[in-house]
Amino acid sequence: MARVSSSIYTALSLLVGIFIGFSIATWLRAHLRICQKQEEILPKPPPNFDDLPPDKRLLFVGIMTAQKFLDTRALTVYQTWGQTIPGKLAFFSSQNSVSKYDIPIVPLERVTDHYPPQKKSFMMLKFMYDNYIDKFEWFMRADDDVYIKADVMEKFLRSVNSSTPLFMGQSGMGKKEELGQLGISSYENFCMGGPGMIFSRETLRRIAPHIQYCLTHLYSFHEDVEIGRCVRQFANISCTWNYEMLHILYHNTSSKADEKLSYIGNLYKDYVLRATSLHPFKVTPHMYRAHAFFDALHARDLRHATLQLTRDASDMDALLGDRRTDRGRLALHPGLSRAPPAGKYDTVAYDFISRSLYSEKNSNPKRGPETATRDALESVVMALMRDANAASRERGRVIDFKEVLYGYVGVDPPRGATWVVDVLMTYKKYAGRKMTVPVRRHVYLQQAFTDVQFREETREDGAEASEGATVSNAYKTLQESLGVGLNLAGGLGGGGGDAENGHEDWVRAKVVHFILPLAGRFATFQRFMNNFESVCLRNDEAVKLAVILFEHAADDAIGDTVALVGELRGRYPHHELAVVHAKGPFSRAPALEIGARQYGRDALLFFVDVDMHFDAAFLQRVRLNTVQSRSVYFPIVYSQFDPATVYADDAAPRDPLRVAEHTGYWRQFGFGIASMYHSDLRDAGGFDLSIVGWGKEDVDLFDKMVRGGNVTIHRAADPGIVHVYHRIECDAGLEPAQLAMCRGTRASTYGSQATLAATLYASPHLLDPVAAVPPAGDSEKA
Fold first, then answer.
1. Same domain for 514 and 498
2. What keywords tag this UniProt record (predicted)?
3. Is residue 444 domain-shared with residue 582, that is, in the same domain?
């Protein structure tokens, strides 16, 4: 009995010991977690800016934000203009705020993200004073949806004395319905918070000791009103009344109904260019777009400065009699005179612009001005008015633009674009004897061309382009054809060596999967395969070919087609060449869909037609311009005119890749030739299989790519691929829209407007309505 009791006691003791040990371990683990969490939320010490260079001690920007915006709006600000300000910035948010990105955050103790953010705003100003009052000259309170042009802001602030008490911003007095309810008199104001408030060091020094008092004596729910009241009471100043601050710190009120629509249109507007800060950007991609726009303007200004320096250097060469350096066309000064044209094709043709656009070289000679033309004209007029008013303040007058009555524009390749514009303006004199007079002037402007520039993007595997990498074969071909030096980002040193070879090998290693729909037309297919063999197979290019073959009642050459592909497969066993038989009548959309499904999602697909002739440089551009999940390539193809029209009096041999104005035209509205990754095709929704017969499937896919927005559409005129002429047969059974497109395309292939005009002048009987009537039964040929 004693032994049993001893055994039970021992077991109970063991169980109690295990329970106590487990409880202690659980408590210790929980305690360590609490300590770790407390350590994580402890406020970090403010960054120390003692080692900042003098040019970075101008401005400290405090950006008010909230936890929910730290990884969106705040990150966007930090990645765009936040990298360029002449000082530092920090994001002020509620206590315990964190971000998964490495951005400077100041979690304010005992501050929440509740609206209105009065305490957050005042505590941010106190933080600036406590930590940075002697490190910066100016302090700015900004929202996380404002864009600041750092270079313009720096120029503005350096023109003002920061040692005096100043409080700058866009002045406000409250809404009409709030008048008399904000605790401010009719002659008092405040700086509105949206576009930003700017404090001089002296102003912040005066109000900081009284922030607690201002927080406990609030008269409204508007934090910008209360900050203005505090500044007025303890710094004895008000927000600047200067009218120009409306343009310096700009708030867009045009889309008040939906602020998400701010700054989505054309940014080349006077108010955008004049402003120092722009507000609001509620959608983060809009701010990235604006940042890219201002970077492009800065690059334009640098190119213009380069152009001016080149001209100065050329003038100095002439002055010193030094002719050893040829500075090329960049050294040409603008002027209205030019060398006499060598022939009729060397004559510069001008487009006439009024309410309509009249163009000699377009198939639609009278039409509404295209967006590019309207934007270019607006840009020219804005540059004109900026130059005209450069010294308006000193002269006591201003010239306002009213409208363009009419104008001409022509492109002279050596010099650039020339504009002749008839402008209606208003001359206003506000100094001395005041007057307002309408003025009409002819303006002659010239936009000079600069060197062609290229940029090499990051490789698809994430590796950066080598520092010493030189141009690829495609770039070299373009360089030779243009006769100019190409400037690529990353440096183009001499040699290149292994870096160049590595880059070339990586580009050529991308397998291009040709997908060719075909029905009959064996002779044309033979020509295509000769071109394919010459460019791809003999040079051991990384390519594959899938011929989607339909039966064709008028051309029973299926066996010959299969035999030709089999012969090439036997001669080039390392290349995958396949024939896929398709059922039913020929239809391009199903054919391309069948071809795409022969390969995996990571395949680079190239949709091609049997009438195309291409070269090796084009193949390289397909690889360079098609990046998975990033870009697709829709080249603008050069299409040949009818040889019977073009070469009627010319017995010279015809080069299949010859590109000239009178031998063909660029198919601006053709989208059938394209390259993309299979995954991007699937993400866009693929081809519309309900479209049968000729046309429309390419436009449908292009529209899907545009609407999808997941990839960039790269579209450019490519001289390396040519549509060889063949007569287009239009099936009368097509849908009306398809039939009209088919007949329109066929009509555009007869010849250039100049050639057709010369033919009509030489044969006026063609305009005789009686003689122009076709014989019975031959209407389709006519």
1. no
2. Golgi apparatus, Membrane, Signal-anchor, Transferase, Transmembrane, Transmembrane helix
3. no
Q: For 44-97, what is the HEC assignment?
A: CCCCCCCCCCHHHCCEEEEEECCHHHHHHHHHHHHHCHHHCCCEEEEEEECCCC
Based on the domain organization, do 319 and 175 belong to the same domain? no
DSSP for residue 511: P
Alpha carbon distance 617, 32 (integer Å): 64
Taking the C-alpha atoms of residue 80 and residue 278, their distance in angstroms, rounded to an integer, is: 13
Nearest to 682 by CA among 659, 653, 711, 657: 711
Given a cut of 90, is residue 666 above it in pLDDT? no
Residue of 147, 182, 176 whose CA lies nearest to 284: 147
CATH number of the domain to which 146 belongs: 3.90.550.50
Residue with tokens 């089999």: 566
Q: Are both 541 and 615 inside the same structural domain? A: yes
Q: Is residue 676 part of a domain?
A: yes
Closest listed residue to residue 607, CA positions, set 504, 739, 697: 697
Do 70 and 84 lie in one domain? The reply is: yes
Q: Is the peptide bond before 280 cis (omega within 30 degrees of 0)?
A: yes
Same domain (yes/no): 433, 461: no
Alpha-carbon span 497 to 501, nearest angstrom: 6
Of 727, 674, 679, give the one whose Cα is nearest residue 703.
674
Express each pLDDT in 306-315 by its tens digit: 888 988 999 9
pLDDT at 777 over 80: no
The domain that contains 694 carries what CATH number?
A: 3.90.550.10
**Phi and psi dihedrals of 218, rounded to 5?**
-95, 140
Q: Which two tokens stand for residue 624?
A: 């360079």
Domain that holds residue 435: 345-448
Neighbours of 645 (CB within 10 A): 17
Same domain, 549 and 488: no
How many whole angstroms separate alpha carbon 453 and alpha carbon 475?
11
- Single-letter amino acid, residue 145: D
Q: Give the H/E segment covering residue 185.
A: none
Identify the sign of the CA torsion 80, 65, 233, 211: negative
CATH of the domain at 439: 3.10.450
* Spatial distance between the Cα atoms of 336 and 350, rounded to a whole number of angstroms: 13
Scan for tokens 């050294």, then name that residue: 331
Taken as a whole, the chain contains a residue count of: 782
Tokens read off for 460: 């698809």
Q: Does 27 map to a domain?
A: no
Domain identity same for 667 and 521: yes
Instruction: Give dist(CA 570, CA 271) in Å, integer.
Output: 67
Q: Is the dihedral of CA 738, 742, 743, 745 positive or negative?
A: positive
Helices (H), 158-253: 201-207, 211-216, 223-234, 245-248
- Coil, strand, or helix at residue 782? coil
Is 104 within a domain?
A: yes
Number of folded domains that form the chain: 5
Between the ranges 108-122, 493-507, 725-739, where is the mean pLDDT highest? 108-122
Residue 236 domain flag: yes
For 465-501, write each residue's pLDDT tens digit: 443 333 444 444 444 443 333 333 333 333 344 444 5
